[in-house]
Predict the structure.
Amino acid sequence: MGAAEAERRVEAIRPVPPPPAPGTLDYPVAGPARRRGRHLAVTLSFFAFVALPVAVTAWYLWARAADQYASRVAFSVRAEEQGPAIELLGGITELSGASSSDTDILYDFLQSQDLVQRTDRQLDLRAIWSRADPAQDPVFAFHGPGTIEDLVEHWNRMVRIGYDTATGLIDIRVLAFDPEEARSIARAIQTESSAMINDLSVAAREDAIGYARAERDRAEDRLSRARVALTAFRTRTRIVDPTIDTEGRMGLVATLQAQLAEALIELDLLRDTTRASDPRIEQAERRIEVIEDRIEAERAQIGAGGDGTAFADLVEEYERLVADKEFAQEAWVAALAAYDLAVAEAQRQSRYLAAHIRPTLAEAAEYPDRPMILGLVAVFLFLAWSALVLIGYALRDRR
């Protein structure tokens, strides 16, 4: 009998174990967990990456970080639109919010290097934010002297700007190590912002009336040149108004023609009643010749006949100068009216900075917000540590 046959006989006579009782497991139960090296490593990493940094942060916040005082100021850009003069008599004035572009410009200005430089020249921001010893509080104190770029970066940390695009309201929080200095910075920000808005109003007003002013100046120059040309003509010709002289000369010609007619009638009467050798006939003929010569001379001066046309040229030149002067004067009146209208329209819309919260003076130090900072550091470190532990276990399970 071979070994295989003997093994089969043994299996045949071996008793069959009873089936498991209901509710029991049909596999071996794991024994109690045993402490391994990786468990110790996880615990040590928790103390190294979470507990110790949180403890150091708490020690720094409560033992080294200097107290900071907050000053708040809030304002908005408003536009005052005045109605026509008839409405002003009734005291009607419309107040409205300025365009969003003005507020956007102001919001950008509040974060600009220009504002930081202006405020620094007034208050010496480097000295204010270095009030806490940078060696004791290197996180929140300014490390002077520093460049203007360093100062702008610290400005963005110490000055928080909130901008509500829906309402156009700007809320600013300024931090400093002294409450009076914090309020001084807030006041400087409000003053410089108001000056910038005023500059925008002046620039917009100049743009609105610049073209009208240029047109008015050109019309004034044209009218002045027309007046000078007319005055030069009168000085050169010694004639104030050639048309009046022409009317006088034409009246003189008409008078001479009437006298000529009388002389001709008198000559005809003499010829009918006297002899041809009568001296009165010769005198009458001489008188008629003189009157005709005078009429011809006057017509020649007027330019109505003969070779002399000088006076007619003077009248033509005078009328041209007068027409130029009248046209220039009408253009000047129209340009002046347009300029006055542009000035009135520009002055009708004026922008200004309306502060609904003036710079406040803190009585207690609210910053740095130690519990919040400590909580954020603890949560961030714990999440980072947890992620690293999970990644480590995942890599271990893949091996």
